[in-house]
């Protein structure tokens, strides 16, 4: 077993095991190797912080949090949201940052240091990240299509005089006494469904239709940007995030000011925040709060492990975890005001209640409801352009993080093949992601996106996060993990963090898993209800990532020599005994830091 140490030269330690018949009593040479500087490092601390914020703050902060908030009690929802963040989300976020910074390696090879039998978690994370790249970048491609379409004096979703419109298209722009019924479709909705997606040409998942070449071109441009942002490592991506992570806040602030000045905006804010205290007694509200904070902060995806692995060893990851978590949560809260001031304005224009306007959720909120509100405003072209620029940059940041998790994990696991071939490996990965996304570019591609989002990530990533927390806290050991943090920061984590890591955070994840399995929500997009066979396909997709965990466990047990009952004299056991026995008595002058065992 290798012990990497900051040391001036290479040496060999001879360790004598304890007098136990299960141990080999012969001296065991323990090589100590020099910590090299070959691993990339962030050029500046802000490069890292902006990369983490850019990954955590994504499109979901803009569409998912506002919808879940008003659906689950408005202002009252903030109570379970904050509770789940404090006891679940933030501790897991801090744990991943500390693990990555201490072990300085990706999501696969890190398990050699923590608990080798759980190495399948790293492979599962890479598969899940691939599934995310198959659909998430398609959503960014939709935003790019809108961005291009916004360069017009009259936005194309403001009237019903286009080739894609139907007799149900109801235009209430600059009109009074417009009749609105259940069959009415706004120009913005028909632009999205019949021009961008052309979903009417698909019969569902059984016949998704052909590939939309316009969307394929948009996706190609997106992946081109992604490649040239990642091909040289964190030194290039760290510069790109100065634009992609900061620009969304400028745009959000502009849209917030503009939305607050619109007639009816106050109706939206009241609807957004008016507390419904009785909702706090519903289990589903707490489940939604837990799921939202988990997917918002993003532990378990391997991204935080990868990004923090390029930090200096003594970087204050505790402060980073608190700051970035606060920024993420406050961004979600502010996005709610941006969205609901516009919804209040739309309700005023339609002369209906806010809840009748706020029926859309998910991407529809960003591609139908908000563009429709923008089209009603003075200077609509300008606001449409900056809004979709914000969406593109929000999405790109998260894509950078997701693909960097795969790149770091695989390159750290196979350095002998990939150490000097990063450009080629990143190119191959981007090509695989592009080809895997083709099904989402078809006429029925939105159905595929929904299926991948629900089953490709969903419960799988929560289960992965649960096993990761268990492996670190219970198998690696909370004492050893606390010592790791002490060696980096100079002080031990407090009792609160230890209790959260050992008990509360795993229980938090188990709660989400059990609740989602006991009460699965019916899957539907627009008027299309997913058939039973597609749900089965979804479960297969979910299992295809998670299955690598038990497969690797079986592989490890079968191919490791010896029986399960035998107590083996492993190097790890000897090193563990050596550290326990001799750490307090060894004089480590000249050893700056013990980095990993």
Descriptive notes:
It is a single chain. It is built from 23 helices and six strands. It is mainly α and 597 residues long. A four-stranded mixed β-sheet has the order 2-3-1-6. A hairpin with a 2-residue loop joins strand 4 and strand 5. The longest helix is centred in the last third of the chain and has 45 residues, at 445-489. The radius of gyration is 26 Å and the shape is globular. This is Transporter. Na(+) binds at residues 54, 56-57, 61, 296, 328, 394, 397-398. GO terms for molecular function: metal ion binding; serotonin binding; serotonin:sodium:chloride symporter activity. It comes from Oncorhynchus tshawytscha (Chinook salmon).
Low-confidence residue ranges: 1-36, 567-597
Task: Write down the overall mean pLDDT.
Answer: 84
Number-wise, the strands total 6
Q: Beta-strand percentage?
A: under 5%
Would you tell me the structural class of the helices and strands?
mainly alpha
For the CA atoms, what is the radius of gyration?
Answer: 26 Å
Count of runs of 4 or more consecutive helical residues: 23
Distance between the termini: 8 Å
Strand order, biggest sheet?
2-3-1-6
What is the quaternary state of this protein? single chain
Helix content: 55-70%
Overall shape: it is globular
Reading the helices and strands in chain order gives EEEHHHHHHHHHHHHHHHHHHHHEEHHHE
Question: Major beta sheet, specifics?
Answer: 4 strands, mixed
Transmembrane segments: 48-66, 78-99, 120-148, 211-230, 242-266, 286-310, 322-347, 382-403, 424-449, 455-477, 489-513, 533-555
Membrane topology: Multi-pass membrane protein
Organism: Oncorhynchus tshawytscha
Protein name: Transporter
């Amino acid at each position: 077993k290798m012990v990497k140490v900051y040391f001036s030269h290479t040496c060999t330690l001879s360790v004598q095991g304890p007098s136990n018949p299960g141990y080999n009593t012969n001296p065991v040479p323990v090589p100590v190797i020099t910590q090299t500087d070959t691993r990339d490092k962030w050029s500046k601390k802000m490069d890292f912080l902006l990369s983490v914020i850019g990954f955590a703050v994504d499109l979901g902060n803009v569409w998912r949090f506002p919808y879940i908030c008003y659906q689950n009690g408005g202002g009252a929802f903030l109570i379970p949201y904050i509770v789940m963040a404090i006891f679940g989300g933030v501790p897991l976020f801090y744990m991943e940052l500390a693990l990555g910074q201490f072990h300085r390696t990706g999501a696969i090879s890190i398990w050699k240091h923590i608990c080798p039998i759980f190495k399948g978690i790293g492979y599962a994370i890479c598969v899940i990240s691939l599934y995310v790249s198959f659909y998430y970048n398609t959503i960014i491609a939709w935003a790019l299509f809108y961005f291009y379409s916004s360069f017009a004096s009259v936005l194309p979703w403001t009237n019903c005089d286009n080739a894609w419109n139907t007799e149900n298209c109801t235009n209430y722009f600059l009109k009074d006494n417009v009749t609105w019924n259940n069959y009415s479709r706004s120009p913005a909705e028909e632009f999205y469904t019949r021009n961008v997606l052309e979903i009417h040409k698909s019969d569902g998942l059984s016949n998704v239709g052909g590939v939309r070449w316009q969307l394929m071109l948009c996706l190609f441009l997106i992946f081109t940007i992604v490649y040239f942002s990642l091909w040289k490592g964190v030194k290039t991506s760290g510069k790109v995030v100065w634009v992609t992570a900061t620009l969304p806040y400028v745009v959000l602030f502009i849209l917030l000011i503009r939305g607050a000045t619109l007639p009816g905006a106050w109706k939206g804010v009241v609807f957004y925040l008016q507390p419904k205290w009785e909702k706090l007694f519903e289990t589903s509200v707490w489940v939604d709060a837990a799921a939202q904070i988990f997917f918002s902060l993003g532990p378990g995806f391997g991204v935080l492990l990868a990004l923090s692995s390029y930090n200096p060893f003594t970087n204050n990851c505790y402060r980073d975890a608190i700051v970035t978590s606060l920024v993420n949560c406050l961004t979600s809260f502010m996005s709610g005001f941006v969205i609901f001031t516009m919804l209040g304005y739309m309700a005023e224009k339609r002369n209906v209640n806010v809840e009748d306007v706020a029926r859309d959720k998910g991407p529809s909120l960003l591609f139908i409801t908000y563009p429709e509100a923008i089209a009603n405003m003075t200077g609509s072209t300008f606001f449409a352009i900056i809004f979709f620029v914000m969406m593109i940059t929000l999405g790109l940041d998260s894509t950078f993080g997701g693909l960097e998790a795969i790149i770091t994990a695989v390159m750290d696991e196979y350095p002998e093949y990939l150490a000097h071939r990063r450009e080629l490996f990143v190119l191959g990965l981007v090509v695989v992601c592009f080809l895997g996304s083709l099904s989402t570019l078809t006429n029925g591609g939105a159905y595929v996106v929904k299926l991948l989002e629900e089953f490709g990530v969903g419960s799988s990533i929560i289960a992965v996060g649960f096993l990761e927390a268990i492996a670190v806290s219970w198998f690696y050991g909370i004492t050893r993990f606390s010592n790791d943090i002490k060696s980096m920061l100079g002080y031990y984590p407090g009792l609160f963090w230890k209790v959260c890591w050992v008990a509360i955070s795993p229980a938090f994840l188990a709660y989400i898993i059990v609740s989602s399995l006991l009460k699965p929500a019916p899957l539907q997009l627009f008027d299309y209800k997913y058939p039973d066979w597609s749900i089965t396909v979804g479960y297969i997709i979910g299992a295809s990532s998670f299955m690598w965990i038990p497969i690797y466990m079986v592989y490890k047990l079968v191919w490791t020599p010896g029986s399960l009952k035998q107590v083996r004299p492993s190097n790890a056991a000897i090193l563990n005994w050596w550290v326990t026995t001799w750490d307090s008595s060894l004089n480590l002058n000249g050893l700056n830091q013990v980095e990993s065992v």
